[in-house]
Each structure stands twice: as C-alpha cells, then as structure tokens.
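Sample entry (221 residues):
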Amino acid sequence: GPAGCPRTEPLSGSSQELFRGADRYDFAVVIPAGTVECFWQFSHQGGNFFFSYEVQRATGIGNSRDVLVTASDPNGFQLGLSQDVRGQINFLTKDTGFYQLCLDNQQNHFGFMQVYLNFGVYYEDFSPEHKQPAERKELNDTLEAIGVSIQRLQTHTFHMWRFYNFARMRKGADSFLLESNSSYISWWSLAQSCVIVLSGVLQLHFLKRLFHAQTSGSHKC
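Predicted structure, serialized as tokens:
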C-alpha cells in the first residue's frame, strides 16, 4: 500500500500459510501534509470488522487534528466515514476479499499528523440462539460446555484487548498534548520573567534619575 504496509493474505486456502497476514493490527502511522494513506485488511464473509483511530499529534498552521477516515468493501463501496480527532467504524463483512481503510490529511497542507490505528476482523462461530434444539441438548455434555466456556472467554478477552488499545490511544494523545503544553508554558514563563526583570531595571533607573543631586546651581526638590 501507499504507507508501505503489505496487504494481508487470506486466512485459509493459501499455499503460503506461513506468510499470511494477521487478523488485527495496532500501530501508529505518520501522514504527511496533503496526502492520503490507505491500508487493506482481508476478511471472509460474515466477519466482524472493527476499526478505531486516534490523532495523537498534529503540526502546521492552524494545528487542526481532524482527519478524514473512510472504509470500503472489496467492490469499492463505502461502508463507513468518520472525520474527527478520534472515532470508530464497525460493520459486518458481506463479501470475501480485501477491505480498504484510508486516512485523508489533505486539509492540512503545512503539517503532518501522527495517528494511532487499531483495526482487524474477528469471527463469532458460537451463537446459541441460532442453534437447533438437538444441538442445544449436546451443550449439556461436560466437554461441550467446557469448549463453549473457553470460546466465550476468548471472545471476552479479545474485546478487553480492544478497549485496552483504545485506552492506549487516549493515553498517547494526552501524553503528546501535555508535552506540547509543558514546552509552551516553559517558554512563555521565561519570556514573562525576562519582561519583569527588565521592567524592574528600567523603573530603578528612572527613580534614581529623579533623586539625582546636581553639583551646581539650585537644588530641585
């Protein structure tokens, strides 16, 4: 892709199983001014596609932190759009293929953006409300119940990982904001201190001139 990230390979049916892509990613990417970066994620039909992002910092005139994010299916049809500092796009994949994610920084012509991304796809094979009555009876078996419990635990753990990554996004953005504010406050405080010292020196100079005694002639009060 344009950002140097290769397309993810299919999860199955490929002769190169060792080189297939991952189901989910989380990383930060720098988007130059006036450019669009795109990524592709493979998904089978019936998968749950999730995508969340957070603009951690932005530079340039105006310092706008809004970024335009779009998600499209393998046929190029747009499935979701978000234009904000942070956001999420979630949908159910109806087609098997590569889904495109694009981040647009064309509104910012003079500075880059650093955006943290967390996207991927997961599959929920277990849905007890759709099972047949005969299959529901099999759940009473001990091994089946253990398998269902483990699958539920894995699903809950996965969603906890998603919320954890979203918290990491917020923490990273807050860290950059605090660092920027600290630098701004330090320089502004130094400038104010210099002005105060200079004002004191000038006041002392003019006060000494008012009480300066003349050596000849009449004395002024």
